[in-house]
Amino acid sequence: MTEADxxxxxxxxxxxxxxxxAASSIETRNLALKKVAELLSHHREDIFTAxxxxxxxxxxxxxxxxxxxxxxxxxxxxxxxVDGIQSLLSLPDPLFQTLLKRELxxxxxxxxxxxxxxxxxxxxxxxxxxxxxxxSLCIKSGNCAILKGGSEAVHTNRILFDLIYExxxxxxxxxxxxxxxxxxxxxNALLDCDKDIDxxxxxxxxxxxxxxxxxxxxxxxxxxxxxxxxxxxASCDVDKAIPIILDAKTQYVAACNAVETLLVHxxxxxxxxxxxxxxxxxxxxxxxxxxxxxxxxxxxxxxELDWRTEYLDLILSVKIVADLEEAVIHINRYGSHHTDSIxxxxxxxxxxxxxxxxxxxxxHNCSTRFADGFRYGFGAEVGISTxxxxxxxxxxxxxxxxxxxxxxxxxxxxxxxxxxxxxxxxRDL
Amino acid sequence: MTEADxxxxxxxxxxxxxxxxAASSIETRNLALKKVAELLSHHREDIFTAxxxxxxxxxxxxxxxxxxxxxxxxxxxxxxxVDGIQSLLSLPDPLFQTLLKRELxxxxxxxxxxxxxxxxxxxxxxxxxxxxxxxSLCIKSGNCAILKGGSEAVHTNRILFDLIYExxxxxxxxxxxxxxxxxxxxxNALLDCDKDIDxxxxxxxxxxxxxxxxxxxxxxxxxxxxxxxxxxxASCDVDKAIPIILDAKTQYVAACNAVETLLVHxxxxxxxxxxxxxxxxxxxxxxxxxxxxxxxxxxxxxxELDWRTEYLDLILSVKIVADLEEAVIHINRYGSHHTDSIxxxxxxxxxxxxxxxxxxxxxHNCSTRFADGFRYGFGAEVGISTxxxxxxxxxxxxxxxxxxxxxxxxxxxxxxxxxxxxxxxxRDL
Lengths: 429, 429
Fold this sequence. Notes:
By secondary structure, the first copy, chain A, is α/β, with parallel strands linked by helices. Chain A contains 15 helices and 17 strands.
C-alpha cells in the first residue's frame, strides 16, 4: 500500500466515523476537551523534550530564525493552548441549535438545525500550537479532523497528536475523530480526497495557501493575501490618523491585517504627509509614493506592482486620490477584500465608504489590526476568510458548522399539494 | 476583440458596478422589480412571437420533445413569472440586516451586516422562465447577474433580457446590473472570470452541472446528482409507506428529489414488498432488487452500479438491510446528500436516522418530494444545494447574501490592547 492509499483509507475512516461524532453530546465533546487539557499539562515535560529535538534538528539544518521561533513549544505556549481549551469549554454547544421551526401544514413540521460540516482537513506550517488549537475547535464542533503539520515539527506534532487522540478515545469519541498525516506526499493525497473531506483549512504563507486553493476541488477556508488599506479622507483628524497608520503598519508587521497602502485625499495631503513622513522615519517605516505624493514628501516612487504587494515589512505605499470614489475603486480593484479603514470626521463619508468597499472588514477611525477573532470576542478563531461564500472575515466556531433540514410528517405525499387538493399554511413556531 | 475578451470586459463592468448596486435602497430594487413585471406583461405578444421563432427552429432541428417542452414560454409561463415577481416584492429586504451588534470597548462598535455576494454567473439550459426568475432574485438581493441561456432559446432570452434591462435602468440600477451572454464560447470565458464573478449557479442536467463544477475555480451553488433514499424501518406502517414511496417515485419522475433507492429492514420486507410490487406494477414502476429482495418478490437484479444511479425514470432499486445502521451507512456512502426519508412508527429510530444521515434533508414519514424552496415557504428558490459550505438544501434569497463587519472607532489602535494597557469588554447590544 502506498502512502497515498494509506491517506485515502484514513480519510475514508474519518468520513465513516463523522456521523457518530456529529451525534455525540456536548457533554462527551466537553469531556474530551477537559481530558486534552489534563493530558497536555500532565505530559508537559515529554512535549518539551520532543520539541527540543525538533528545535535542535532545525538549527542543525540551518532553518530560518522565524521558522525556528514559530516552532518553539514551551511553558508559555502550553499555558496559551490550555487557556484556549478552557475558553472553548465555556462556549455554548454550536450543534443542535434550531435556526428555524416552521409548520408547513398540520402535522408537517420543518426544522433547520445546526450540525458539523463533517471532515475538516487542516494543513499548517511549523507552529505546533496550531495543531492543538484546531483539533480542539474540531472536537467542540463535532468535526473529524485530519491534521498535517510541518515536517520540522514532526516530534512535537506526534506527541501532541498522541495525547489529544488518547484524550478523545478515553472520552468516547469514535476512532476516526482525529488523524495525523506526516509525510509530504500526504498533502497531495489529502487534496485529492474530495469525496471524504468537506473543507480544507490551510494555515501558512500566502504561497502555501495559494497552492492549496489552486490544487484541490475541496472548498478552502482562509485567505492568501492581506492587502489592507487606510484611506485618509479630506476631513480626517491628523492627530488620530498618524497613530492609527503607525499602529496598523508596525504593531505586528507580518500580520495579514497590517496596512500595506495608504490612500490620501488631495485636500488632506498637505496637513498629513509631512508629519507622517517624519513619524514614519522615526518608526523605521519606508514610504513609497506615487508622483503626486512625492510633491509633498521626499520618498522613493511606488510602481503599479506596489498596489498589489503585501509587503509584510516596514514599507508603506502612498497614493493621492481626488475623492472618496477614487479611493473605493482603488481598494476594490487592488485590495484582497480583507480589511480597509477610512479615517474621517465626516460621518456621511464614513458610511458611504463602509457601504461601497467590498471587504470582509470596513472600519471607521480605527486600526485595521482589529480584524481578529479574539478581538471580535469570538473566543476562538478558525482563521480569517476573504471568501464571500460560507464564512467571511474572522471565523469562529460558526465557520465549522452547517445545518440540515428535518421534516417530520405523518404520511404526507406531495401529490395532493401539487394538484391543489391540499395547501401549505406556513406558520413559524 | 475576441468573444472571450468581450465577456471578460462585461464581467469586469459587472464587478465595478456591483458596489453601487449593493448600496441601492430596497425602494429602488423593488421599483425595478415592479417595472420588470409591467414591461413583461405589456410586451407579452412580442415575447410569445420570439418564443414561437425559437420553438419553430427547435422543431426544424429535431430537438428532443422534453427540451422543446421546457423551451415554451406562453401565457401560463408569463403568469407564473409575474406571480413570482409579486411574491418577491412582498419579501423583506435581505440586505442591511444587522446580524450582530457588539461593543468591543467604549466607543468601539462592531456590527455584522448582510450585503450582496457581488456578481453571480447563472448558466442555464433551455427554460427561458429561469432567466426571469434568477434575474429577479438577483435584483432583489442587490447582486449583479451575468446570464447565459441555452442557444435554442436565443430569441426568447434576448427579448426577456432587453425588457428586464430596460426596467432596471429606468428604475436607476447601474449599467452592469445585468449582462446577457449569448455564445457557447461565452460559457468557458465565464468559467475563467474568477476575479470578477463571486458565485456560479448552473441550472440543467447532471452532466452539465458537473462540467461547470469541474471547470471553474469559482464557487458553485447547486447539485449534480439527486440520489434520494427511502428507508422502511422494522416498525414502518405499510399503509403510509406505499403511498409515500409511489409519490416519491412517480409524482415527478425527473425531479432531483425523486426517490431512486428503497432500503427495507429485513423484518419489514415480508409485509411491505409483495404489496409494493403489486402497486408499483400498476403505476408502471419497475423494481430492481438485491438477492435478498428477490426472495420476497419477482424482480430483475440490482447491480452495484444501481446504488449510484439517478434513474430519473420509473425505476426503483430495492435493498434489504439488517438494521437502521446498515441503512445509514448505505445512504451516506452511495447517496448524494440531498434528501432521505425514514418511514417508521418508532420515534427514537426516526430521531437516530435524522441525526446520522448526512444529507441536506432528513425526513420522517413523508415524501422526499417535499424538498423544494416553495414547499419550505421560502417564497423564491435559487436552487437546491448539496454542498455543506455556504447554503445547503433548498436555497432562497439567503443564499445570495453574505455579510461584512463594520467597526466604528474614535481613533483606537491595537497597541494598547496587545500590551494589556487596555482590554475589551464585549457587550452585545
